[in-house]
């Protein structure tokens, strides 16, 4: 049985200009006992559906210790680096992945489809050869696709976890289906990026 349940994730600041930060309010419930190890949250921008080589980790934050009960926090991360996005994938639909891991094992992944497009109708009809990101808007589709992985909360991953994770990665890139998710944190929070913030609500 999972010790942590993600109750809800809400997108803030949406739609917004391309260079605006990503913001999510995440609600979770720790059911059984205080976790021995901190939770690691990661936000990844899928730069291209053709290859994971263009994925960008926008930020990683570590949250803990997490006491038993219901908690809510804000995860904010900067926009992706435009220079790392293929020109052919600048406009159109891509995805962002919000994941959480315990003892380096991912147990939940919340994926959102993202649409980048120009605001000006003329630029929409005649996109410039060099993408102009300062004239783009970013719109995150509100209904996420949620995938959960079975892990051994004592430290070892269940045998089927790696296969399930590989199948889900392919499905996220090839399948446009979406699904709904199932049904005060006082902690030490560390962010690897000095440009992003995470705060307690």
Automatic annotation (TrEMBL):
UniProt xrefs under InterPro entries: ASF1-like (IPR006818), ASF1-like_sf (IPR036747)
One function term, GO molecular function aspect: histone binding
Domain of life from the UniProt record: Eukaryota
Any one biological process term the GO annotation gives: DNA replication-dependent chromatin assembly
Segments of skewed composition (Polar residues): 190-201
Entry's Gene Ontology cellular component terms: chromatin; nucleus
Compartments, as annotated in UniProt: Nucleus
Chief location of this protein within or outside the cell: nucleus
Annotated spans, Disordered: 174-201
Database matches in SUPFAM superfamilies: ASF1-like
Swiss-Prot/TrEMBL keywords: Chaperone, Nucleus, Transcription, Transcription regulation
The family this protein is said to belong to: Belongs to the ASF1 family.
Protein name as annotated: Uncharacterized protein
